[in-house]
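Worked example 2:
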Amino acid sequence: MTTAAATAPAAVTLDQIRAAAATLKGAIVATPFAHSRTLSSVTGAQVFVKFENLQFTGSFKDRGSLVKLGQLSAAQQRNGIIAVSAGNHAQGVAYHAQRLGIPATIVMPEITPYSKVRQTKGFGARVLLHGQNLADTEPFAAELVAKEKLTLIHPYDDAAIVAGQGTVALEMLTAEPNLDVLIVPVGGGGLIAGCAVAAKAMKPDIQVIGAETALYPSLYQKMRDLPPKMGGATIADGIAVKTIGKVPFAIHQKLVDDVMVVNEPEIEQAICLYLDIEKVVAEGAGATSLAALVGHPQRFAGKRVGLVLSGGNIDARLLAQVINRGMVRSGRVLSLRVDINDVPGTLARVATVIGETGGNIIEVRHQRLFTDIPAKAAELDLMVETRDPESARDMIARLQAAGFTVHVMSSSSSGSD
């Protein structure tokens, strides 16, 4: 990979990003850029977080959308605009189009969660559901562009969009000019492209590093001339993009220093860290920058690192699942199987031992039929919440000391039977 230069391609300049910032002033949320003492302690770096999840529509997409809409001609505004999106771009475009009085059409796949459809309609957009994925929706949207003379608002492959997203880094470097590294989530590439232009112009020696989900490492592969190989269900659906935009990639080649990939458990852990430490909700895509930092602390030790938390639009049920899985990984929730004699009072004895160690039984089930143990015995399947991994190990030891055989069915940190 070539070393990043301090100048940007002509497609987007620092002056354009500053002009975009003037357009955005007073029209979007001035999101906090704050030092995190606890994340700094956890990672060994000096960590600063840009909380773009606090934008009105829940993501950085408010920025580029408004900048692009503000550059449309009067005729384009009268005719209306169209966007293809199943998430944050749809809401950003719809919200600002409503504010500006521009008719908006948003094309979404038929499988888009209804909550996102409802939110987008709530901003006054005409929402059309078509196809099973974004690849299906794009030809349909192209037909509408030609038929109704609409202007397509692309989520990332547009210089105005890139300039708008670049205001994120402009604000970060203005607040903390001594940053050593920016870590930015990467999907289609518009956000990191704009951030790279602003950051390298303001501080040429700063490192700009992308963070991608390992299931969709489009930029990682493209910058290394690797054959495209991607796909799968990722929690970072907001950056599950198979093709990097041409406008952003021209910038990436010159200004982005590296791209890191993170796996699903690392992203889930980062979501939990934001919730536990910063008391904020991050969607999967928004948490990838923290996941990259936490996964490679030695690389960033002692450096002043700016993280872009790009969005917080995560389904409540999915967030609950992530939290529960995080408790399992941290050893605070265990699945145990205890071999018992099937006689009255045995369950009470097991529950007493667990309670004495501070454990809380969440679920319990006797298994008498689908097992090879003697007919006078049973297997007791328990889901138990504990204070921490140490108390979990103590609980298992006490159960064993009481004469029970204990099998740990799932736990990351409490050991096995």
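The chain has 17 helices and 14 strands. The first strand starts at residue 33 and ends at 36.
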